Structures
1.
Amino acid sequence: MYNSLTRIQNVFGFFTTVAFVVAALIAASDFTAPRTPSATIKTTNVQVVKGRPHYYSTKKEEYAIIRFSLDADLSSLFTWNTKQLFVYVTAEWPVAPAGADNMNQTNKAVIWDAIITSPSSDHLSNLGPASLKKLRKSAAGKTIDPSRGKLSLKNQKPKYQITHPTGRIAETDDVKLHVNYNVQPWVGILTWNQAFDLGRWKKMAGGVSKAFALPALKKKDGEATAKKSR
């Protein structure tokens, strides 16, 4: 009644259905684990200089260098289904008034980021052999290591500088640093910062610095000396 091909198709269809249901249950289990992330961030040094912010830049422009200190507890974001956690800090400021010479409508720039892996995905870490060996040793016998979600950075140097399409960014007001995260599970959907509480998942406590202003353009020593001598 049934040939071999039909039987194989039936078995494969049953297998994929079971696999899909199991994957859906695993993804749904994330909602049962509480999330209570928190962070405190503040600036330690802010400068605006003029030059080529990137090696590929074709012209000189103003760019901001923002150092910061960060204390964050993201340990609750690590569960048995967490593959890795992407953490990043953005500098954000309001859109300029209508009619101003401003082509950028988002006013958001990433200044620092990091990928924190769970013990089961350490092999994906972009680390050297010595660092990777140390990381694996610290997580020996663990399937979950929430301590990796605890960050303490002091006077951290930014990975990226802030620029603007107009080439001018000095003396920008009401700038704030925001701590952001993206949870990447083994199975399920990617999740980002929450703007509101969702069941056992709570929005981040803190994570925003006090407003500050970018300073005036920093002059080079040679330029400052030449102006004084005139």
2.
Amino acid sequence: MTNPLNLTSNLFFFIFTLTILYVAYTFPKLQPKQTNLVFYVHDHFTGEDSTAATVAGKSGTTSSILRFGTVAIVDDPVTEGPTMDSTLIGRAQGMYINSQLDGKGLYMVFSVIFTDGEYKGSSLEIQGSDIFTMKEREFGVVSGTGYFRFVKGYGIMETEFMDIDNLRATLKLNVTVKHY
């Protein structure tokens, strides 16, 4: 003889499973948005408008960022266009570490903090290798805040201008991110 409790339990389990499957496959899934940004970072190690400083290295704070083992901090202006006269939209704050024995490559980690424009109050966290002798290089976007919560993405950095003797550069960042 069949146990009526078994039949009831099986029927309940079957209906419960169908309900879960229905909910899982009929409710809309949250799709990530893709945002493409282009902005410029003005990196100045010298001059009255200096925005970067060496803080450690083989020769102490007098080390050049162009030498292996040197650490520098930055608080660079971020603009919409390639000139300093362009609209200021934020700051790039973080550090560079010269991590290549020949001195031609930096490890960079910094926050792009948007202080004006559409993304005001939001930030992107950037990290990766910067072999500055290359015209174009790729980096990762690993995190973000505000508009860019749960972000992941990448960027292409191009050197727009470089004065290696005076340690001044303008970098174009073309960033593509996915976020919710």
3.
Amino acid sequence: MTSTKDMSSQSDISKLKTESDGSFNRAASSVRNFITNDGKFTPEKGRYHLYVAYACPWATRTLITRKLKGLEDFIPVSAVSPHLGAEGWPFKNADPSWADADNDPEHPHFQHVKDLYLLADPNYGGRFTVPILWDKKLDTIVNNESSEIIRIFNTAFNHLLPADKAAVDIYPVAHRQQIDSINEWVYDTVNNGVYKCGFAQSQSAYEDAVYPLFKSLDRLEEMLKDKDYLVGNTLTEADIRLFVTTIRFDPAYVGHFKCNLRDIRHGYPNIHLWMRKLYWNNDAFKSTTKFDHIKETYYSAQITVNPSRVVAAGPVPHIEPL
């Protein structure tokens, strides 16, 4: 897909704009459809495709949920190269240097994620982000908001799944109010908080983000005392949404984003244990965490934060054993 319009502000992370006070304000995802039995997008095996970057915490939410729900045969996945560049996320044919990146099997000539957005809407004005849940039948985007994609995966295909996978419920009715409450402040101060630290363009904007981040980590540390999960005694989306940030914390956010009041492994023993149990005991978390992708994108792609593109060697190991 080609266009004469300058779309670099939509694809080039080095052109990411901050507010007048130097703070980073993330734009909301803009494609927000759902898969329902009676709507435009109906649940069908093989109809949908998921596009992700293993580096991206938002996309990794969807990978974890897809595996927990046993949707691997229902929804195939394509992962881009971690070399996020001026044209955005590249497929393998645009960046053959990365061995386990994929091409787009639905559109083999496409080179970047932005091509999907422009096919779905030639006038699309948002950023070219992942994840993308794609409808192969209508050749368009269903949804690009990870928090909604994981809820689609949680319920939309249950009637087509084996009983054990249909029974997996990461957003149980009994705990929804508590999950929603936790999600709200964890998103603002932790999931997005690390980005507000890293992309801050003034000292005051950085400090306005970094201290609330660690206040929330302190709060989470207390919540996870003698617990395996954040809510009740069951794995929920609150755990998934927190995990994708904490697993990146020591390898990327401590150094690259200056989130360095404490690290997870030494400063937060309860969070550290909770995170390691999820990683080592549940393959949905371990198999979707690729530290080489994570470090390559954060250190080499975000050149406004790290102009040298030198990738940090540590920590060693990336995650400690149980």
4.
Amino acid sequence: MASLAAPSKSKTGSGANAAFNDKSKPMEVRLSNMTAAKAISDAVRTSLGPKGMDKMISNSKGEVIVTNDGATILKSIQALHPAAKMLVDLSAAQDIEAGDGTTSVVVLAGSLLGAAEKMLGKGIHPSLIATSFLNAAQKSVEYLTEMSTPVDLSDSSSLLRAATTSLNSKIVSQYSSTLAPIAVKAVTRIATSQSSNVDLRDIRIVKKIGGTIEDTTLVEGVVLNQNMITSHGSPTRIEKAKIGLIQFQLSPPKPDVCTIRATSIHETEKLQDGSYNNRQ
């Protein structure tokens, strides 16, 4: 009499299915991402505002940086977590786009993640939270557009107030009366009436050791970093100098040098006769 045996379930397969059907795993990943991002936000939160504290950072080269600028702080932080890197990239994008508000965007993103964590704890679906944030962002842009005040590039007083306000939260805030007019003049020098943005790479900042911030000046032209020869009584300052642009080399040309290799006495004799042609 034959008997049939039912196939038994594999323990390996049941374990994999159990891990796949584990609903707590996605929540752990979300909470891990939020914790890493909020850690970056908490690191720069205390440097926000005119009364924010400065951070002293020592990089891998041994250099010590004292600043309260969010982009500088986050650039020095070697974030390894992907969510933390997103906040670092967010601060860098804000610095490129607006040049200010690098700390504010990170603190705001950390606060939004904290609110999202509370809503996840109440059982609200992540897709619904993300959609709500997008709708709120659109409505916020509408309100900010209504509240905004258009700025004309010819209105130097408004530009000066904006530059001074941006410098109030920086470590050079006490020199804002010196640096703000220089910044406004430099930007308006390269801006046009039709342009809504300027390329800051057209403005070169040259640092020199030995002076103070009050010695900062704006040079309308080209600044070349060239060492002067003062040992033979050469002048150190020339006003209204005539500069010549030369497109050829002033030093004498180097002679062409070739290598001739002779491997036998016959080739040496040809070399003496001037008929040897094996040049390298």
